[in-house]
Each structure stands twice: as C-alpha cells, then as structure tokens.
Amino acid sequence: MPIVIKDYTWNQSSTNIQLRVPIPSVYTEKVDLFSSDCYIKANFSPFFFELFLMHDVDMTKSKCTIVHENCLLIDLVKKEERIWSDLEKILSKEDKKELRQKILEKCQEKAKNEAENKAIMKSNLARFTVQQAMDIDNKQHIIMDSRRDEECKKAMDQLEIWKNNTNKSSGVKITELPSSEDELSRKKVDVSIASVKQIPKQLKVRSEYVEKKKKETAKRVLPKLRDMAQVEITHTPRSFPTPSRESTAREEDIWLKNITLARRATGFVSEDLRPEEQDPQWCKEKGDEFFRSGNFLGAISAYTHGITLSDKLPSLFANRAAAHFSLGNFNKCANDCSTALDLMKPACEINRRSRGKCIARRAAALARLGYLNKAIDEMKAAAKLLPDDENLKKDIYDMERAWEQDPDSE
Asked: What is the DSSP letter of 150?
C-alpha cells in the first residue's frame, strides 16, 4: 500500500505559492508528477503525495525541481493575485474521486486536441515542403529547357551561316541526303518487285501417293475417348509431418511413448478412458477426485475433457475455475466463472448457492488481479445470495480496508 506524505510545507505571496515536499534520496530519480490547474499528484513508489488546490493556478508558468536536500520544490503561479485562506480544499472521499475523474478526462481531452493539432500542423508542413520542392523542380526544368533551346537555336544559326557562305564561295549546291532507314526501305521495295517479276508461274503436278494417303485418311476411324475417372489417394495417418520414407520410426515411437507417460503423470489421459467412461458427469466426478487429492492439473484435464463432450454443464466450468484458482491462473478462473454463471439461467432457488459461490470465486480472482473496486461489488452480490456465510462478510470488510489504503486501484 502507498505511504501518503502529509509533512509538506508551503508559503505564498500574492502571485506565487512555493511547496516543499520531502522525498527519500533513493527515490529522487523515480518521481512521477501529474498536475493540472487545481490538482497535483506526485508518485515515487511506495510514497504518494496528492493535493487539491483551493484555487486555480497557471501550470504553463509553474515549475517543479528536485533540490539537493532531497526535497521536491514546486513553484506555482496563481491565476488571480490574491492571498489564499488555505492551500487545500476540504473534500470528502467521494468528492475527491469524482474530481479526480473530471480532471483526468479534461487532461485526456486536452492531450487529444494537442495531438490532433500537432498532426494537422505536421501534415500542413509536409504538404508545404512537397509544394516547395515541386516549385523548385519546375523552375529547374524551365531553366534547363530554355538553355537547351538557346543552344539548339545557336547551333542551327551557325549551320545556316556556314551553308550560305559555302554556296556563295564555291558555287556548289548542298543538298540533304535521305536517312539510312529511308534508303534501306526503298531498296527492299525495289528488290521485292524485281523478284516477283523474275519468278515464273509454276505448274500443278498430281501425285498418286498423295491421293492415296488422302483417301486412307478420310476412311480412318478414330478410337473412342477414354472415360473420365477420379483417383482417390489415401495417406497413412501419422503424428509427424514427414512422410514414412523419410522418418525414423524408432525415435518417433520413443518420443510418443515419453509424451504419453508425461501426460499420464498429470493423472488423466483421454485415450485411456473406456467407452462407458466417455460421459461428462463421469469426467466431473474424476476431476473432483483429483481436486480433493491436490492434483489440480489432473482435475483441469478431466474437467476440460468433460467440456469437450458437453459444454452445457455449468458445474464443469465452476469446478475448473476452482482448480485454476488453486494454481494461480486467476484470469482463466474469472473466465470460467463467467461462463458458468451464463449457463446457470434462469436464476432460481435451486442454483442460488452455486451462483453465490461462483460469484464469490470470481470476486476473489479479480482481487488477486488488482481490481479491488470490481471485486468488492462482486463479493457484495455473492453475500446477498448467501446471507448466512460469515466468511463472505469478513472478505468484504478486508477488501474495503485494502481499497481505502489504495484508492487508485481499479
């Protein structure tokens, strides 16, 4: 349970408040501080400091430091210039709980809005960066295109000047030759026309062998198509994924025997049951025997096999929850209790004691998991069903005392 710090000191002016909270030197690097305009909490396990301020302060201008005297120094700036009559509000336990919840929701909403605004600003900045990069890229392309066009125009102008000067000086006319591809295609066309002109007309020649083969082909009878069939392939069932031709049978048999012996050590193996023992009620009785002898793993195995045979028997889930609780499997215990309660419907006098015990066991599992507030409610519901059980009343009293010492537990 946390140790609440009460021996703090404070002084004030019209604009500021200074708090001095003592902390052990060994915990100076493990201080977890949470603050809002009207609430301050410092947690350095196992110590705990909490303060509900009388008036609001400006946390954006306030600060917190750890001084060398092993002291937490908190400087608060008041929102209004005034002298406070007292530092902390006088509130009841329920008021403090309600105020904590409101402050937490307000801080969560504020953090959510800040995160959304930050994400929007980041997205806008990324969009602006991409747009600027695109603008710079476009400008670079425009400059490169203009330089290329200028160089091309300059080269063409120089070529035209050289061509005119050459024609004037030598009297020779310069003509552009056709490209190599045009010349090659023209030659191909000429060659193809010439070849067509040179090929003489061929005479058709009749062959007795060809005529005979044609007649035989026309008279030939083709065999029928084979009937369709489905081939079924059955594989030998095996516990290992490798085929038999790649297996080591001796080592695999030894491994299977060792696994079977290990499972029998828990007290229950479904393969060992006789046909008349494949009954959920028999599995429940077998699990109860294991449970009474302290063999909780064997009990869980028996109850689980009974559930595979019939998942509508609430006693199997309730008894398996008890076995899980004995082994410390509190999550599984709570889940089995919930399933058993769902099956105990409709609620009537016949199943009243079973429902009460199941709810009490779920409350105990929730308490072990740290959910004291929920466990207290569950235990009170069980006490209503079992009013003559004094142990439940004692458990409720112990849980409430524990919750008062640690009000932050769920």
From this structure: H
